[in-house]
Amino acid sequence: MSRRATFIPYSPKRILNKGKRADHWFWSRYSAYPYIGCQHGCEFCYCRERKYSPYEDPQDFAYVIKIKSNAPDLLRRELGRVPVDVVFTGDYQPAEHKFRLSRQMLEVCHDLGFPVFILERSPLVLEDLDLIEAIHARARAVVAFSIISTPDAPSAARVRQIERLAPDAGKRFEAMARLAERGIPTGTCLMPVLPGLSDDEDTLRRVVQWTADHGGQFVLAGTLTLADQQRDYFFEVLGQQFSDVLPLYERLYPAGSYAPAGGASLEIARLVRRLCMEAGIPDRIQRPVIPGEKRALNKRVTEALANRAYDLELERKPAKRVWAYRKAAWAIEDLQQDVGLVIDQMGVSGLAGIPQIGEQMAEEIGRWIPALREK
Where would a tag sit more exposed on the chain, N or C end, judged by fewer CB atoms within 10 A? Predict the structure, then answer.
């Protein structure tokens, strides 16, 4: 007999996770989620890790869903105290049919003028398309779909087995097309790429091409991470269902590791970049800038620096050089003055005095400024 989901409402004291600055993947500075646990139950989900999961038994993650009943009220109160920036939110698992907390949280973001990033495995997100459009008109909304295979890929059968109750990938692509038709920026988070299960070039090429064919504007790729109880749980799943690839995982994820060993992540990223170039879409997401934002140019410069750091990483340049651009991106992000005004008044030498910038980096930023001002 299959196990049924149990819903446990409760009232947490806080809901908003705050970063010092926006991340360089999704450009979100905040995150807030209405549920703990997920009925989709994808076997590889990092949310089974101990730092995210309150469950002693990792199996409970898919069946014991904790409902943050006061999530909308908490979010309204906490967002009212922080600068406007991107909120990573939304959780369209089956529980959303009943509780509708994701919609209520999006309503808060709309009311307060916060842009949102929504990452989903379900077309259920389309039920709130009207609200997502309203957020996009006022600030910005991006909806990405977590997709690691296509219905016609060699890996399709195995991926469907390991994704459990997640809706079929074809339905996610159809939802992507609907969003694109309505002018909502959308694309694919090809995460996690699973070694030996969905990392073959044919599968990756199909995911990228299906994204382009369905109006997707980006593909972000990332490899599987495993830690503590999630590692033990996933290895047990592999032993039961895909024993042929278990030795590969034991080699790539030795005890105490988190990301795959041997540079596998970098190789996947390089391959996905090449496939994206062939399909005519980027492997990075454009940073949202709210209309009328006072330091919009700073955000554009930060984005350019972060993208340059990623380029150099894929080119296997020395880590010191990669980190120079990453630290420069943080410095511009933290700058309280408009970077364009600094250059207009003091020239690039004004930038050179900012910690982590220096003369050479200032000269490079100065060359970018005219094009970034036109964005």
Answer: N
pTM to 2 decimal places: 0.95
Measured CA to CA, the distance from residue 213 to residue 27 in angstroms comes to 25
Q: Which two tokens stand for residue 118?
A: 């929504």
CB 227 within 8 A of CB 49: yes
Residues 142, 143, 146, 147, CA torsion sign: negative
Query: Which positions of the chain have pLDDT values less than 70?
Result: 1
Q: Are residues 218 and 327 in the same domain?
A: no
Determine the Cα angle at 306 with ends 119 and 48, to 5°.
35
Provide the CATH number for the domain around residue 338.
1.10.150.110
Q: Which range marks the domain in which residue 224 is found?
A: 6-279
pLDDT tens by residue, 302-344: 999 999 999 999 999 999 999 999 999 999 999 999 999 998 8
DSSP 247: H
If asked whether residues 229 and 348 sit together in one domain, one would say no
Residues 316 and 234 reside in one and the same domain: no
Task: Tell me what pLDDT residue 248 has.
Answer: 96
Strand boundaries in the chain, DSSP class E:
6-10, 17-18, 30-32, 35-36, 64-68, 87-89, 116-120, 141-146, 186-193, 219-223
Domain boundary among 221, 251, 279: 279
Tokens 């050479």 map to which residue?
Answer: 360
List residues bridging with 119 in a β-sheet: 144
For residues 116 and 82, state if they share a domain. yes
How many structural domains does the chain have? 2
Shortest CA distance to 354 belongs to which of 290, 293, 305, 289?
A: 305
The domain that holds 267 is classified in CATH as 3.20.20.70
Residue 1: the pLDDT is: 47
Contact 6, 65 (CB under 8 A): yes
Separation between Cα atoms, residue 97 and residue 115, nearest integer Å = 24
Q: Please say whether the beta carbons of 91 and 33 come within 8 A.
A: yes
Q: Are residues 255 and 369 in the same domain?
A: no
The Cα diameter of the chain in Å comes to: 72
> Is 256 found in the same domain as 316?
no
